[in-house]
Design goal:
- The protein has three domains: 1-39, no CATH class; 41-140, 2-Layer Sandwich (Beta-Lactamase); 144-215, Winged helix-like DNA-binding domain superfamily/Winged helix DNA-binding domain (Arc Repressor Mutant, subunit A).
- The chain has helices spanning 4-10, 26-39, 57-65, 82-96, 147-153, 157-167, 172-179, 183-197, 202-209, and strands at residues 17-18, 23-24, 43-48, 51-55, 69-70, 78-79, 102-106, 115-122, 130-137, 141-143, 213-215.
- By secondary structure, the chain is an alpha+beta fold.
- The strands form four sheets. The chain has a five-stranded antiparallel beta sheet, sandwiched between helices. It has a two-stranded antiparallel ribbon with strand order 1-2. The chain has a two-stranded antiparallel sheet with strand order 5-6.
Amino acid sequence: MESIQARMSSGAQTAWLAAPSSILTGRRLASLSHAALTELPLAMMLIDQEGPAFINTAAQVLLSHDRELTSGGTYGLTASSRSENIVLQRLIVEALSGRQGSIATITRGGSLPPILVTISPLRVEGEPPLALLLIHNGAGQQTTDHRPLIERYGLTEAESGVALAIISGHNAKRIARMRDVGVSTIRTQIRQVLSKTGCADQRQFISRFGWLLAVNRA
């Protein structure tokens, strides 16, 4: 199977990106895109029907050090919990079939937050169906500031803080303890977050805004 890395580096299709001081050809743009995805601090995988097609450095590091989520299996990703692995594999299959993206939750022992795997269908012209996986490791996350949510969607400081806690995998009760407020207050803020961002539920919110998390590679 030809890897996505090879496809991205081939420059078979010409693409142009106009910049203030330069124009990048398709071959150079493909090379730079591959390098950027490889070094992206967020763990990322691309999967096609034959298995893993691309895995960046952050994902390799995460999967080599985590016990609950490791590389292996048909699609290159396996959860140690049998029930969670069944769900994970099903969601990958659904994404490859073009269905709406979803979130697989991989629980961990102790007080560690879960690992969240955002799984989305990805269509590239001339390529087989792909599933894009973004892996949020709660033990190695740091959140960006609140400005994107505040400036674009009109969230308050409190609501944006709750939003980032949701993305990190915390439920309403845990967020209430973290912020030292009542659960009813947090649930009201969650409803406001979903309403202002146009999301039907927390799963959709995580799927759309999971990019707000950056995984530490240290």
